Amino acid sequence: GEDVEQSLFLSVREGDSSVINCTYTDSSSTYLYWYKQEPGAGLQLLTYIFSNMDMKQDQRLTVLLNKKDKHLSLRIADTQTGDSAIYFCAESISGGSYIPTFGRGTSLIVHP
Amino acid sequence: GAVVSQHPSRVICKSGTSVKIECRSLDFQATTMFWYRQFPKKSLMLMATSNEGSKATYEQGVEKDKFLINHASLTLSTLTVTSAHPEDSSFYICSARAPTGQGVTPLHFGNGTRLTVT
Predict the structure, then answer these.
(1) What angle do CA B106, A44, A2 make, to 5 degrees?
(2) Spatial separation of the C-alpha atoms in residues B10 and B21, rounded to whole Å
(3) 3-class SS at A82?
(4) Is A112 in the B-facing interface, judged by CB distances under 8 Å?
(5) pLDDT tens for chain B, residues 1 to 118
(6) Nearest CB partner across the interface for B111, out of A2, A35, A42
(7) Cβ-proximal residues to A83 (8 Å cutoff; 6+ apart), any chain
(8) Confidence at residue A21, expressed as pLDDT on a 0 to 100 scale
(9) What stretch of H or E contains B106?
(10) CB–CB of A35 and B114 under 8 A?
(11) Handedness of CA A100, B107, B35, B42 (dihedral sign)
């Protein structure tokens, strides 16, 4: 299996909350990231969490980390059409010079 | 915030020609930059790590003679796709780490270059 796994698609209604899930395999992951990619653009860092944290909140974004299950989630509250994009989960470890390993990305589709 | 600029955003070239893509860190110095390639519905694949003033480090399976990387200054890395073929058509993205002096910082990405080889 892949090092970082995500479901490929998520569809939500505007105004609802979106939860994008990610699992990783390396228990020595030090940093875990969420990036957003809009069509034809590069990756925009949304947020990241250090492995000794369980939760991080930044405005509409909430990141939850379950180290025991190696599970990371990104919750977007009050999802808007402008949130439609691909969301990438990534992990990095000290042994890998902290170069992140990415999942395949989750396409979030927000419909009215 | 840290800004990484990539140019051009889109390029179409004929098979057999070479194409150069530039990656610049606009408001910080980057001793290391990273070049990724993104395939449709696939994750980002790290191609190489570009090191200022020294040779790039290529990932396994990436041809260093085909994908030439030059990191001549602390703010500029270039990727040259030599003798391009249609299978080289892809989305290439560069990234760099902005130093903060406080532990490891995440990568900041350019907007990518869509290469189409006809």
Answers:
(1) 70
(2) 10
(3) helix
(4) no
(5) 678 999 999 999 999 999 999 999 998 888 889 999 998 777 889 999 998 888 999 999 999 999 999 998 999 999 999 999 999 999 999 999 877 665 667 788 999 999 999 9
(6) A42
(7) A18, A76, A108, A110
(8) 97
(9) none
(10) no
(11) positive
